[in-house]
């Protein structure tokens, strides 16, 4: 069960709600097990032996992901944090331990600085601004770096992506400097529409690409890192050293394959609809949407009320009206007096019109 009374109340309130705008309902163990069992009739290699240390269906997932990203090979990891460490450590073996990354990047903010504490790497900040770095900033770094890491999109800055020309300029500068580029692409799957390019085009000049199996795809867990065959061969050595060579991982691999079939084709539609939802939310008094319009199907939404009041209003609307608009709220700054929630526009939001968003938001604000 959930860890806190707030999480427990949110779980039950969202499950009772008939309509959800952001993200989806959390499943029970029974529901997750039934959904996994339902895949038995799908087009998956289920009559082969269960995987052993990464073969079988896990290998099927690796090769399919590599093809989707335009890379020769990929390696599966049980967690994204492990995948990031192994990817950067593999580059450190041939190039060096200094990684240029944004201070808001996932390894700095959400991995307890494992790249420094466990992997012996050192980070160099690309920029102090809450946005994607520019090639000029990379060129002006006053200390050397060995690997360039770009988070696409940059989640903690608002799921921000660079423009295509900006991304190409970063790639080109790193190439001229002889430095490999690693993409932290936990949410890369939904980034292609912003660039107007295919995923292989986005990834073509990156030496390694990390993607998540459950963010956006709805899998159970896990991540993959794709790259050239020799790089992936060396990457798997670090996967073993970090404890990622598990005896069996077929449930997670099967759920990830289903996510590639079901959710990946829907993501462009989610991205397009997020612009409609964001515009309706931004029209509320004192509201802010960032970025406006959204770069992916996720964005930040700010309102001028304390987080606790917004949380309570959300619970009441779900419990009393059967409508749940948002997840949790927090007051992180940089806008004093405003609280922020992250909005994810996915399948449950697909049939919401702009007028319905406005009506439901008005009802929500009446409860604040």
TrEMBL record:
Pfam families the UniProt entry points to: Beta_elim_lyase
Keyword Signal recorded: no
Keywords (A to Z) from UniProt: Lyase, Pyridoxal phosphate
UniProt-listed Enzyme Commission number(s): 4.1.2.5
Record-linked InterPro entries: ArAA_b-elim_lyase/Thr_aldolase, PyrdxlP-dep_Trfase, PyrdxlP-dep_Trfase_major, PyrdxlP-dep_Trfase_small
Gene3D superfamilies: Aspartate Aminotransferase, domain 1, Type I PLP-dependent aspartate aminotransferase-like (Major domain)
Gene Ontology biological process terms, A to Z: glycine biosynthetic process; L-threonine catabolic process
Example GO molecular function: L-allo-threonine aldolase activity
Top EC class for this record: lyase
Domain of life the protein comes from: Bacteria
A single Gene Ontology CC term: cytosol
Cofactor: pyridoxal 5'-phosphate
Family indicated by similarity: Belongs to the threonine aldolase family.
PANTHER family membership: L-THREONINE ALDOLASE (PTHR48097:SF9), L-THREONINE ALDOLASE-RELATED (PTHR48097)
Protein name per UniProt: Putative L-threonine aldolase
């Amino acid at each position: 069960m959930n860890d806190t009374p707030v999480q427990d109340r949110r779980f039950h309130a969202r499950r009772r709600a008939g309509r959800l705008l952001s993200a989806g309902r959390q499943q029970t163990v029974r529901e997750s097990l039934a959904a996994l069992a339902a895949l038995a009739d799908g087009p998956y290699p289920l009559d082969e032996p269960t995987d052993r240390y990464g073969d079988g269906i896990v290998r099927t997932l690796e090769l399919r992901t590599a093809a989707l990203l335009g890379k020769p090979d990929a390696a599966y990891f049980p967690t994204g944090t492990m995948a990031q460490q192994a990817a950067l450590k593999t580059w450190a073996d041939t190039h060096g331990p200094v990684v240029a990354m944004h201070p808001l990047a996932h390894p700095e903010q959400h991995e307890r600085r494992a790249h420094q504490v466990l992997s012996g790497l050192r980070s160099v900040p690309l920029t102090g601004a809450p946005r994607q770095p520019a090639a000029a900033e990379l060129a002006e770094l006053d200390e050397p770096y060995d690997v360039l890491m770009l988070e696409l999109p940059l989640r903690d800055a608002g799921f921000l992506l660079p423009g295509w020309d900006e991304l190409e300029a970063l790639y080109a500068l790193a190439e001229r400097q002889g430095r490999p580029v690693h993409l932290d692409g936990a949410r890369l799957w939904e980034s292609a529409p912003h660039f107007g390019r295919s995923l292989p085009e986005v990834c073509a000049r990156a030496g390694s690409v990390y993607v998540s199996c459950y963010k956006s795809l709805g899998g159970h867990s896990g991540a993959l890192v794709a790259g050239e065959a020799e790089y992936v061969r060396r990457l798997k050595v670090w996967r073993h050293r970090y404890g990622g060579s598990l005896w069996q991982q077929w449930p997670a691999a099967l759920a990830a394959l289903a996510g590639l079939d079901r959710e990946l084709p829907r993501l462009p539609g989610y991205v397009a609809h997020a612009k409609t939802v964001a515009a309706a939310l931004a029209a509320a008094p004192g509201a802010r949407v960032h970025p406006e319009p959204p770069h992916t199907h996720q964005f930040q939404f700010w309102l001028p009320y304390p987080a606790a009041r917004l949380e309570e209003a959300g619970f009441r609307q779900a419990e009393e009206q059967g409508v749940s608009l948002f997840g949790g709220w927090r007051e992180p700054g940089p806008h004093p007096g405003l609280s922020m929630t992250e909005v994810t526009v996915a399948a449950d939001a697909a049939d919401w019109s702009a007028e319905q968003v406005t009506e439901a938001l008005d009802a929500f604000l009446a409860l604040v």
